Amino acid sequence: MVVIELTSLTASFLLTSILIELTPGPNMTYLALVAARDGRRAGMATVAGIALGLAIIGTIAGLGLAQLIHASDIAYETLRWAGILFLLYLAWEGWTTGTDVAAQSTASSGGYFARGLMTNLLNPKAAVFYVSVLPAFIDATGDAERQALVLTAIYVGVATAIHTIIVMLAATLEPVLNDPARERVARRVLSALLALVAIWFGWTTAR
After folding, report:
1. What's the pLDDT at 101?
2. Band of residue 110 on the pLDDT scale cut at 50, 70, 90
3. What angle do CA 109, 94, 24 make, to 5 degrees?
4. CA–CA dist 4, 142 (Å, integer)
5. What's the total number of domains in the chain?
6. Highest mean pLDDT (candidates 87-91, 137-141, 180-184)
7. What is the spatial distance between Cα 111 and Cα 131, in angstroms, rounded to a whole number?
8. For the chain, what percent of residues have pLDDT higher than 90?
9. d(Cα 54, Cα 159) in Å, to the nearest integer?
10. Domain encompassing residue 55
11. Which residues contact 140 (CB under 8 A, 6 or more apart)?
């Protein structure tokens, strides 16, 4: 009986994760910007960083430590504003960077990985998701900590799959954007969108 109930909860969580990740947000916008501007390799390095960030936050939440961020206004606001400012910095960098797409794609993958990681470690919304949403899908009669880690793995898997699709689709624009004029327009449109997402992020995460 427990196995059936747990399977049902897991399926519900899987559907919820898909719907959440299909909702436009900072990760989706930034990945589109990186992949369209710098190519598939850069986009996938960013995806890996985002996946690690989500896994770290989920593991911390599974151990109960993220509840401190959820309960402390100071900790939450510090993390929230750090995330907003970091997104605005990425938008500014995307707006002002050079127009040579081919040259951009030779940058170190480690840099893209680190930025993908930071966009999630500085995202209090991810921590709140794990603390406030994920517990609703845990069977109270089972091992809560183990289930939390399993659900975290599911969420990271769903997010990574969707992020990979975004990168593949956006990277197809890279050859077109090798023309400096087209690249500049597309990059600035995506950068402006990322800045708007940062503002929206700040508005929707305010307590």
Report:
1. 36
2. confident
3. 90
4. 12
5. 1
6. 87-91
7. 29
8. 18
9. 9
10. 2-205
11. none
Q: What is the pTM of this model?
A: 0.69
Which residue is listed with tokens 């990945």? 31
Contact present, 146 and 53 (Cβ < 8 Å): no
Q: How far is CA 188 from the centre of its chain?
A: 21
**HEC readout, the chain:** CHHHHHHHHHHHHHHHHHHHHHCCCHHHHHHHHHHHHHCHHHHHHHHHHHHHHHHHHHHHHHCCCHHHHHHCHHHHHHHHHHHHHHHHHHHHHHHHCCCCHHHHCCCCHHHHHHHHHHHHHCCHHHHHHHHHHHHHHCCCCCCHHHHHHHHHHHHHHHHHHHHHHHHHHHHCCCCHHHCHHHHHHHHHHHHHHHHHHHHHHHHHHCC
Token code pair at residue 43: 């986009």
CA angle 46, 180, 32 (to 5 degrees): 25
Mean pLDDT of 36-63: 89
